[in-house]
Each structure stands twice: as structure tokens, then as C-alpha cells.
Predict the 3D structure of the following.
Amino acid sequence: MANTAFKQYASENGGRVLLLFLLFLLALYELVTAGFNAFAIICILPILSLAVIAIFHYRMLTFWILIILNYLIMWHGMRLPQGIPLSLYNEMLEIILIALAIINVKDAKFERCANMMLFALILWCTYCTIEILNDTCGLGINMAAWFQGVRLIAFQLMYAFIVFTLYITNPKILTRYLFIWGGLALLAVFTVWKQKYIGLSPEDNAWLHGPSGRQHLISGGTLIRYWSIYSDAANFGIGIASTAVAFIIFGITSKIKKHKIFFLVTGFACFWAMFPSGTRTAIACLMAGFLSYIFLSKSFKIAIPVTIVFGLFVFILAFTNIGQGNQQIRRMRSAFDKNDASAGAREINQETMRKYMKEAPFGIGIGMSNVPANNKYNKIVNLPADSEYVYIWLRTGKIGITLFLICTAIMIGGACWIVLFILKSPSLRGIGAGLCCAMISQQLGGYGNQVLMQFPNCLTFYGGLALVYILPHIESEWIEYEKEQLAIQEEKKRLKLEKKRASRV
């Protein structure tokens, strides 16, 4: 009986069985002749083959892996293979997704990419590509250093735009994305709560007391600036503040009850999580985001209460001592102190930079980080940029930072135009407004800290802005989707009311 079953299995799967058997023999041979590393490579080939097949068959799964990995990649508890740049994981997944879209060009909606954001990104990427010829430091053209820098400062913006535009194509995928983003944000909130009230993990504790984390111990070591699953507290504080802006706006404009509850819970949880970060710029980011929404809402019913609540929050921080007994609130309140020491140190550094940058209108070069001590630009490289805008200015010069600001204004301005004048659905306009305001909030964060191109902010907020440009394409589908969800909501409400009435009889 067993022999018959084996023959039947072999006849049905003979080729695959033979291939696996030959791979097994090859693995044993490599183990004996070349060692364990070669053996391991042979053994992993079937897994890699399955992974490639899965990527081709489940493209959206690859997209969701990108979204999740992008959010978790800087988590100090993540155990990834050593020697591989962290940015490479995102980049390879994005390139794979773009390649898959090109292979399935008939199904891909490339025409949706033709918008103002693409135009602005082409301008910026073109300038950064020309920067390969920049030899301001007199060290010759270093293509490897340029490529490493340009991937992070320019190309990843284009990847985020293309991937989000091609893969979020209908209301269901859009809603699923917002829920996954919200779920990841809640994970970050939970992690910062755990760090603050339960304690740090061994990995977090080791990082905090290492060279990179020492600046997170302040007030004589009595106050910790918490960073959750992000790279550092500034990145976390600004990213989570911008996320709070987006989800609170999503929540107050959503018509679907379960969506409204989830969005508002996520938004206010992120608002709370901003404080343990001790990142004072986050306050300004929150202010910028909600002030922008007052303009984009086009509704006095929304604008007036938002203004009142927001104004009360700022008044409490700036002009009262409420909560002064809490170290985190005291830290945030110092954002309104014009005589703050750290702000003064930044101004001194930037004044020094201006003297050197007068002779470098194109910057010192993208990717330029190792400059000899006898080179006059060595001082520039070793001064902390402390701001994404300052970093771009140093690498690309006043011409580069001016172009970057123009391109940013084009991208945000085009998205705001869509929200103000093109979208008709109030709830979809709320999603667009939330994404625009989060991006404005994030840009202000980039002015104060070097967070704009960091994980997970770059993909999240530049990808989010790309979504605004596709909202007009899916608006009719969104209206139908919303009607269906509201009908289901009303039916559940009716059944619940009938059950309640029946129980009284």
C-alpha cells in the first residue's frame, strides 16, 4: 500500500521531487567540500524560489510588507542580517513593486502618475543627478558616495510616489492602508507607553547608554526622551505629531462610525505619545498641521471648534503653569522659551556654516561626509546639521535648497488645490486634508530637525501626499463604497433597535 502511494505521489510530483533530491545531494556535497556557508546557500534556494513566486502572484502582499517593514525597520529590537544598509530593504521592495507594475503594464494605472507631484519630483531628482559633477571640495568625483546620498535625498521620494500611486487604486485598498497605518501608529504608542511605565527592553537600554542615545538622558539623567520604535526621540515626536494631525482630521470628517472611532482613538493616542518624546518641535508641527486644516476645511462648523480647542491647548502651554509638575510637560513648554540654550547653539552653528557656504552655491556635494582635515570644508561636515533643510542646503547649496523649497511648494500646493476645489465628497476631502496637513506638519519638523527623510516618515508622508493626487480618480468609487458602508451601518442599527424593543416585550 505504501509503495503504491509513493508511486502515485512520484508520478504526480516527479519533477519537483527529483529537483529537491538533487538539491539535497548538492547541499551535502557543498557541506563536505566547501563548508557550512555553501551548504546554507543551497538549502535556502527553494525558499528564495517560493518567495519570488509569491511576489509575482501576491503583489499587494509585497506592498503591505513594504508598509510594515518601513515602520518597523528602525526598531532597536529588530533583528535583521548584519552588513546590509537598512535603506536597501525599502528600496529593493519598491523597485520590485515598480518592476511588477511594468511587467503587468496593462493592469497598472501609470496615467495616474502624470500630475504636479511627478513634475516637481522630476525637477528635484534631475538637479540631484547633476550634482554628481559637483567637486566643490576638490576631491574629485566620488560616484559611490554620491549614489549613496542621492538615494536617500531624492530617489526614495520618487519611489514612494510611484508605488503609492500604482498600488492604492480603489477605496477598499485606501481604507485598508489607513487602518494598517493607524495600527502601526498604535503599536508605536503602546511601545512608548511600555518604555515609560514598564521599562526599557535590553536592546533599548543598551542603545540609550551608548553613544547614540546619550542625548536622550536630560535634566541630569532624571528625564528620558522616549523614542518608541523609531530611530530616536526627535524622529518619533515629530512623526507621531504629524500622524496625530492626520488621524484626528480623518476622524472628525468620516461618516462611517467604526472608521470615525478608530481614527479618533488613533489620533488622540498619537497626540498623547508626542509628550514622552520630549521633542519640542513636535508642538510647532502640531500647530502647523491644525492651522493648515482651518484653511482647508472650508467649514466654519469644523474650523471654529478646532480653533478653540487648539487655541486653548497653546494657551495652556504658553501662558499657564498647568501640568508643571510633570517633567515631560515642562520639557514641551520650553518650546515657547526664546532664550532656550539648544536653539542658541543651532543659530551659532548655522552662522558658521553661512560663512563657508558663500563660496559653495551648489553645496559641498551629495554624499560628501569624509573630508580631510586640511580641507576648508572639513568643519562644515563635522558640524551637526540639526535640520533636514540645513542638511540639504549644505549638500546642494543655496541653489539646491531653493529648488527643493519650490518643488515642495508645488507638491503641497497641488494637493491642497485638489482638496479645496476638485474633491466633492466631504469625507474624501477630509482624508485629503488630513494627508496635506500631516505633510505640512512634517515639513516644519524638517525645518527644526533632521527627520524628513528618515524611516518611517519619508515613505509615510510623501506616499500620503501622493495619495491626495489619486483621490479624484477614485472619488466616484468612494461615494459608492461609502453608501454601502453607511447602509450596512444603518441596517445594524435597525436590527439592534429591533432586538432592544423585542427584549422589552
